[in-house]
Amino acid sequence: MVLVSATPYFPAQARAAMAQLSVDAFSDADWAAQRQRHVRGDDQIRLLFEQMRGLKDSYDDMAFTPPLLATIAARTLIVHGDRDPLYPVELALEMYRAIPSSALWVVPNGGHGPIFGAMAGRFIETALAHLSQHT
Prior knowledge:
Blueprint: E1 2-4, H1 12-20, H2 28-37, H3 42-54, H4 66-69, E2 76-81, H5 89-98, E3 102-107, H6 120-132
Parallel strand pairs: 1-2, 2-3
């Protein structure tokens, strides 16, 4: 399993950011960047942002405690940017410590979703190496 910019729960700064999400404030450059990542078009982008905004009020499905994470049997690669504005890198470390067969790759100067752009090739290489390991 590969987790990218994952979190065991939504911290306060993520909820505050979710409350502010809106495609209405997108610049042309923002739209261009989103269209590169989400190839199903503008409706998909709008829907994803509406869903993310709605998560600000959800407290019932994101409660992955260390004992619950410890039940994960799959080898897990956790990829996290050290500058993620939504989920502090400490949360990735918490998951790494709790999931028995996990590895952690903290991407230097990486934000939320640090696998795009210049890091895409390195991510593919790292993820494929992780997934191809035999235990």
